[in-house]
Amino acid sequence: MALSPMSRRLSLMLGLSVLALSPMAQAAKPVAAAAPAPVASLVSQVDIPYEEFTLKNGLRVIVHTDRKAPVVAVSIWYHVGSRYEPVGKTGFAHLFEHLMFYGSENADGPFFGRLEDIGATDWNGTTWFDRTNYFETVPTGALDRALFLESDRMGHLLGAVTQAKLDTQRGVVQNEKRMGENEPYGLVEYAQLDAMLPAGHPYRHSTIGSMADLNAASLADVQSWFKTHYGPNNAVLVLAGDIDAATAKTKVEKWFGNIAAGPAPKDVDATVPSLDKDVEKVMHDNVAATRLYRNWIVPGVNSADLQQLDLAMTVFGGLKSSRLDNVLVRDEKVAVSVKASIQPFEKLSIAEITVDVKPGADPVAVGKRLDALLADYLAKGPSADEVLRAATTQAAGTISGLEKVGGFSGKAVTLAEGAVYSNDPAKYKKDLAVYAGATPETVSAAARKWLGRPVLRLTVAPGERSAADNALAGNATHRPAFFRNPDAAAPVITTQAGALAAPTKIAEPPIEPVKDLDFPDVEHATLKNGIPVVLAHRATVPTVRISVAFDAGNAADDRAKLGTAGLTAALLDEGTTTRSSVQIAEEQERLGASISAANSMDRTNVGLFALKPNLDASLGLLADVIRNPAFAPAEVERLRGQVLTRIASEKTEPMAIAQRMLPPLLYGQAHPYGIPFTGSGTESGVKAVTRADLTAFHDAWLRPDNATIFVAGDTTLAELMPLLEKRFGDWKAPKTAKGTKTFRMDKMMRPSRIILIDKPQSPQSLILGGLLTNKAGTDNPVTLQTANEVLGGSTTSRLTMDLRETKGWAYGAGTALPGVKETIPLLVYAPVQTDKTGESIIAARQDIKDYLTTKGTTEAERNQTINSQILSLPGSFETSSDLLSAMMRNSLVGRPDDYYETLPKVYRAMTAADFDKAAREAINPDRLIWVVVGDAKLVRPQLDAVGLPVEMGTLAD
Q1: Confidence class of residue 180 from pLDDT cuts 50, 70 and 90?
Q2: 3-state class of 233 per DSSP?
Q3: Using an 8 Å Cβ cutoff, are 716 and 723 in contact?
Q4: If you average pLDDT over residues 148-158, what whole number do you get?
Q5: 517 with 904: CB under 8 angstroms?
Q6: Handedness of CA 644, 647, 649, 652 (dihedral sign)
Q7: Do residues 77 and 236 make contact, with C-beta atoms less than 8 angstroms apart?
């Protein structure tokens, strides 16, 4: 998968900890159920009008008009994926996707750099078993440029593909493979496909492929794949947004009409196999909790049974009030998390149930209990209310996703997927109708038919990975030092027609004028008890998002009992004084609502997603959760166990290990930010928290005189304020004092050094470096943040281009300035192949030093960055969620409501010298502290050669 901009892809935000913990039942008085909108009514509101046409070369074009923002989503789907790969060529569809981002005959060089030039948002490329897609959302004025770029790589790619590009991207893909396998349970997919599918089945190999096959990929393979599969007659192009069909037809004909059709597409069929008998398999991995899997191969997206089966799985293990949650997590307390879902593909799908066993419980006994629960469920089926709740949840999720025109879940994707897999762009309507019309009988019939067959029972237990499991991943023959034999001659590239034709010359179109961002008007009001209300209206879909934000967060955590803040947030929806956790979960599901509580570093946010017809009842549930949490002792103990398991799990995950280790090294133990960035606290702290501590934290921090209510979506102040007054207006602050946070730095010296944490059997090393800048979030250091785009914050940044694109040592690398209110750290991130760990730190240090001294910002870098920042603004606030986050960010650091509208003028005034001045004043590279998580026996000798002191580190707490 190609990467979207670094500033949007680094998972380095401080303390963004959402505890995905399950509710627990408790004795409580019955609560009258709200009267939610019927599922059929919700489904009837889901509509994506479209027009379509087909060019003479076979390119199918689908157009949807949505004028809410001056942007157009461009989504092109090629009907080819990893199931089309022949024997010995696994991983090639995905490798080819990477090559599509590295230049075509009339637009050579990194494609993502050109996307950044035109302010593209929500851009990426993905490969899966059945398709490869490329998508971006661009300002309307840049649509011609985007269509030129897409048409040039469809029609004029091969003349720009070189051996050097192939070798580099081979290395990037191999590091992407290592990165996935370096995570806990990272080898499971290989074992599942091997066990469930017969030899030779087109779905049997993973999309990422094997190291040996990736090493063997040649330029001749590139040509053959492109000519066979990338013709316009094997593609669907969707344009959704600020465009109409007539305009689209003119533009698409201009840019794509002269591309010759490719060979007639040939499908690779695939059966839906059944196991002859149950299969039992045990794997070992560096995991904190034993995970039990139950898997079946089930039919693909065009089967009449799939939606029914999806509902069956949702009821059994997908809802917050699912059968598995109620029994294994809440009542019997032998599991810390459960899940049941369908992963749909074109020709077949994979049904999966997972249970993470509570440490100390017997996995064998839990497995038998799981199987007994499934047998009982298949025999008796779901209730009508369970089916209703599952269907409502599905409808609400679909409505939410269609607020965007592009991205991973927007309207363009929905239309394209229907066209490619089902020859019907409106397939989503048929699916929703099935969900709305499902009954216990139809759901039960599908469940018995497909889940009553032999099953794969896979157990992943703590321990060392075996050679056999690594071999299933295709890793037995990988050679990370060389991607091809350096002494071998480059292959000769020919086609059936002989040598490549001379490139066709096509001029790159200019960008038409793009209006600066028009941020929606922000309105303010105050409840009678003083709680401020901030609203932005956005009526694209009939939904409302609300966040009740408290000035608390992980920075307010009890230093003596770290984890108090996280445990408090996790327990809010685990029962109130009048509702049990099961009742809370069921009520959300009936309403199509979702309530979540989470801590960022500076704020505790309790959020609500609601369907507009059900807003009043949803607000009633939100208010109860915030105002009246019960903190029942039994729930506290269950959630404590889940958080402790989460902490143990974090100590097996490379990034989480580094995020736990680095903050105290940067800020010191006394600073509110000198805590694990994961937000989960420490083992000793979580063990020590009492119910009284939780109640005290709630009273000190989650109170009306410490709250602001932010709202974005399909509502007005006139509609909203009476509902908020009804639910929150009579809320009075407790008599106890409001909490305070003290930010001060100690006088300790923190010299630059390397802390190595040993993670045996790691297929790569995770590098996380950090230092404290001299800026706070309240300083609004926009010039520093913009300069960081050049250093490491974008996909064309210095660090990314060096470690990923030039050297091929990393799948992703870069820098980030997390959005905290007080002192901002600079974080440097790079997961790299093990044998290049030391050299990667040396290279990163040199890149940073050069940028801050002799090789400052070039005029070209300044212009590209400024263009990208300005042009991307209209596409950055497309959804109510985007607006909500922007308003909350402005409030956090004290910016005016129209801040984002003023940015274009601020950006245009910046010079390259301003970039350099801001970066050099704020960043002292000699203070960088590096945390490395990897296999010490392989990494330590490399680190000793870096020139910095090296210490061994451990995560004791």
Answers
A1: confident
A2: helix
A3: no
A4: 95
A5: yes
A6: negative
A7: yes
Q: Residue 192, SS3?
A: helix
> Got the DSSP string for 138-178?
EEGGGHHHHHHHHHHHHHS-GGG--HHHHHHHHHHHHHHHH
Q: Is the pLDDT of residue 12 over 80?
A: no
**Dihedral, CA atoms, 884, 886, 887, 888, nearest 10 degrees?**
80
Write the DSSP string, 618-631.
Answer: HHHHHHHHHH-B--
Other CB atoms within 10 Å distance of the CB of residue 380: 10
Q: Per-residue pLDDT tens for 474-501?
A: 643 322 222 222 233 333 333 333 344 5
Residue 203 DSSP symbol: T
Question: Among 881, 953, 245, 880, which residue's Cα sits nearest to residue 651?
Answer: 953
What gap in Å lies between CA 818 and CA 822, rounded to an integer? 10
Q: Residue 950: count other Cβ atoms within 10 Å of its Cβ.
A: 18
Stated as kind and residue range, the H or E segment containing 132 is strand 132-139
Confidence of residue 856 (pLDDT cuts 50, 70, 90): very high
Residue with tokens 């004084």: 577
Cα-Cα-Cα-Cα dihedral sign, residues 633, 637, 642, 648: positive
Token match 């309790």: residue? Answer: 606
CA–CA separation, 768 and 12 (whole Å):
10
Distance separating alpha carbons of residues 296 and 281, to the nearest angstrom: 14
How far apart CA 105 and CA 505 sit, in angstroms, is 8
Exposure of 764 by Cβ count < 10 A (0-12 exposed, 13-18 middle, 19+ buried)? buried
Task: Give the alpha-carbon dihedral of 76, 80, 83, 84, to 10 degrees.
Answer: -160
Contacts of 881 (CB under 8 A, 6+ apart): 403, 545, 712
Provide the angle, in degrees to the nearest 10, between the axes of the packed helices 427-437 and 384-401.
160
Least confident residue range of 295-299, 329-333, 492-496, 797-801: 492-496
Q: Sign of the C-alpha dihedral, residues 421, 425, 428, 434? A: negative
How far apart are alpha carbons 600 and 604 in whole angstroms?
Answer: 6
Element (DSSP H or E) covering residue 845:
helix 837-852
Q: Residue with structure tokens 């509509």?
A: 47
- DSSP-based helix, strand, coil % in the chain, nearest 5: 45, 20, 40
Q: What CA–CA distance (Å, rounded) separates 467 from 473?
A: 10
Tokens linked to 432: 């929703």
707's enclosing H/E stretch is strand 707-713
Whole-Å CA distances, 384 to 100, 426, 430, 437, 440: 49, 28, 21, 11, 6
pLDDT digits (tens, 9 = 90+) for 623-663: 999 999 999 999 999 999 999 999 999 999 999 999 999 99
Contacts of 709 (CB under 8 A, 6+ apart): 527, 531, 532, 533, 534, 546, 547, 548, 549, 724, 728
Burial class (CB in 10 A: 0-12, 13-18, 19+), 460: buried
Tokens 């750099």 -> residue: 113
Q: Tell me, rounded to whole angstroms, the distance of Cα 692 from its chain centroid.
A: 36
The separation between the first and the last C-alpha atoms of the chain, rounded to the nearest angstrom, is 35
Cβ atoms < 10 Å from Cβ of 200: 7
How far is it, in rounded angstroms, from Cα 55 to Cα 50? 17
Output the six-digit token pair for 777.
Answer: 């979030």
Three-state SS letters, 556-612? HCCCCCCCHHHHHHHHCCCEECCCEHHHHHHHHHHHCCEEEEEECCCCEEEEEEEEH
